[in-house]
Amino acid sequence: MHQFIAGQYREGHGGEAKRINPATGEVAETVTYANTDDVDTAVAAAKAAFVRWSALPPSDRSDAMGRLADELARRASQLAAVETAQTGKSIRMSAEFDVPGTIDNVNFFAGAARHLQGLATGEYLPGQTSMVRREPIGVIGSISPWNYPLQMAAWKILPAIAAGNTIVLKPSELTPGTSLMMAEAAKAAEIPDGVINIVTGPGKSVGEHLVQHPDVMMTSFTGSSAVGRRIMEMASAQAKRVHLELGGKAPFVVFDDADLEAAAHGAVAGSIINGGQDCTAATRAYVQQSLFDAFVERVAELMSGVVIGDPTDDATELGSLISHQHRDKVAGFVDRARENGARVVTGGSAPGGDLAGGAFYQPTLIVDAAQDSEIVQQEIFGPVLVALPFDTDDDGLALANDTPYGLAASAWSRDINRTLRASEEIQAGCVWINDHIPMATEMPHGGYKASGFGKDMSSYSLEEYTNIKHVMMCRDTNAHRDWQDVVFRSKDNAQDNRRTS
Ligand code: NAD
After folding, report:
1. 270-289: b or e for each residue (b if 16 or more CB lie within 10 Å)?
2. Which of 72, 270, 285, 339 is 20 to 30 A from 96, comparing alpha carbons?
């Protein structure tokens, strides 16, 4: 049963599909997909639940979300095991990054539910009192990707329900498991039925129907830029609100006074984390000329020492990619770069032996690629880093901005002026200084340019899921208000309309 609607697991009516374990290539389970009627049922459940959930005092929503954090903590090892089984990522990633990160998010939004901010109430015109209400929007339709299934579900669900909305989430058809478990945990936490609903299946049938459903008031989406554009197109027909977290191609800029050893470690960890299937992963290392050779040598050395293997083994540093099809896509990028004159310094192929049946790919470092080549410009979403040299600081920063994307970036230097300049000039939603990847739940995450708009995490994301209403109360007891002089041009007419109560 792969739908969770109105507090219950249900069969989907959109047909069956086999889910493959990417680390072995074997069939892991048969899943049933939703059809459009199932989506309608889920939206109706969310719409019905909205009436009560949105009217609860924030403290009640907060308490319920606090209980959700406890339920998730109780299920932590099970969640980590399912996350690894469905994605092929190392159990270390699932257990030490995904699950604790998700629980931290739940705890944050449980508190944030009680801290919605607005302008102070006040008198901005004579005789008028203005106040701002922040109101939930209604039913949110959310769509999430496969790379961090649990965390992406959390980033969509939590701010939405904390602000008083209800939600129908469609996770990636490749990774529905932990999103369903989260909804089940919400039920155990006594979050009312219908507040969180999960429908599973392909984007084209299930996702498009959800986005276009007339009772869905807003679509929040995390995924590729191409699908994000399609979502925006569909939403535009109904002038529906969208929140888009899209692809990335993060630059990693190393100035000539950087700590080389720290930068090399940062580049390897930042490019292969989660198999490089991370929208903020370091993908383009621009290294100032005098450090370039030493950087390439050290990164290659660290990459070749990475332990690739069975994702369920705690010693594994790099598990498999999400699917064989995706592995072949990553390999295709590397093969074409090679054919076009780039040089693979390390990696550049799938490992053989015991790992031949899985969707594994070696950590890969590429040099001698042209700035305008596809390997530098397009999102590969695999453990592949391209290193390119630059001369002046101006050049390094210009190259960093030279892709359509703008999600994340890092700059490495011991000079505060250089790093401050980089933080100002790099066009991205997050700029790390002397690090790459860590995130804080309190801080916003979201893109510039083709990486989308809207923020996940932090109180900024809570605001995304609210409508702002201005209420203006007139305290003037005259029938004719002073501002009406602009309408009633004749003084007599204005006088005639004046009376006191
Ligand atoms: P994807 O765009 O292929 O799919 C994402 C989701 O959209 C899936 O649930 C899919 O079923 C659904 N979908 C596909 N076509 C659809 C359609 N026509 N209508 C409605 N829904 C549709 O992305 P993916 O391959 O699952 O994930 C990888 C992408 O996600 C990368 O581009 C990555 O950078 C991006 N991502 C971005 C962030 C961020 O915060 N900006 C975070 C994680 C992943």
Report:
1. bbbbbbbbbbbbbbbbbbbe
2. 285
Average pLDDT over residues 344-369: 97
Q: Are 303 and 272 in contact (CB under 8 A)?
A: yes
Alpha carbon nearest to ligand 1 atom 15, residue: 203
- Ligand 1 geometric centre to CA of 219 (Å): 13
Give the mean pLDDT of 232-239: 96
In 267-350, the DSSP E strands lie at 282-288, 343-346
Q: For residue 13, tell me if it sits in a domain.
A: yes
pLDDT of 500 over the 50 cut: no
Residues with CB under 6 A from ligand 1: 143-147, 152, 170, 172-173, 202-204, 207-208, 211, 222-224, 227, 230-231, 245-248, 279, 379, 381, 407, 447, 451
Section 111-131 average pLDDT = 92
Adjacency order of strands within the sheet including 8-10: 8-10, 3-5, 196-198, 166-170, 139-143, 216-222, 241-245, 452-453
Report pLDDT for 501.
Answer: 43
Model confidence at 294: pLDDT above 60: yes
Residue nearest to ligand 1 atom 36, measured at CA: 223
Q: Is residue 455 part of a domain?
A: no
Tell which residue, 97, 103, 101, 39, has the closest CA to residue 65: 103
For residue 398, give the nearest of 271, 248, 253 by alpha carbon.
Answer: 253
- Give 492's pLDDT tier (boundaries 50, 70, 90): low
Separation between Cα atoms, residue 51 and residue 43, nearest integer Å: 13
Q: Do 270 and 379 have their domain in common?
A: yes
CA distance 480 to 494: 7
In this structure, the answer to whether residues 215 and 266 fall within a common structural domain is no
Instruction: Kindly report whether the global pTM for this prediction surpasses the value 0.85.
Output: yes
* Contact predicate 437/462, CB 8 Å: no
Active site residue 279: yes
Written as six digits, the tokens of 296 are 């390439």
Assess whether 185 and 294 both reside in one domain.
no
Q: How confident is the model at residue 120 (pLDDT cuts 50, 70, 90)?
A: confident
H or E element in which residue 192 lies:
none
Same domain, 392 and 259: yes
Are 186 and 323 part of one and the same domain?
no
Q: How many CA atoms lie within 13 A of 308 on its CB side?
A: 26
Closest-lying ligand 1 atom to the alpha carbon of residue 447:
41
Confirm whether 470 is domain-assigned: no
pLDDT at 113 over 70: yes
Secondary structure class of 427 (helix, strand, coil): coil
Spatial distance between the Cα atoms of 86 and 27, rounded to a whole number of angstroms = 11
CA nearest to 379, candidates 207, 251, 247 = 247
| Mean pLDDT computed over 126-142 | 96
User: What are 200's two structure tokens?
Assistant: 């599973």
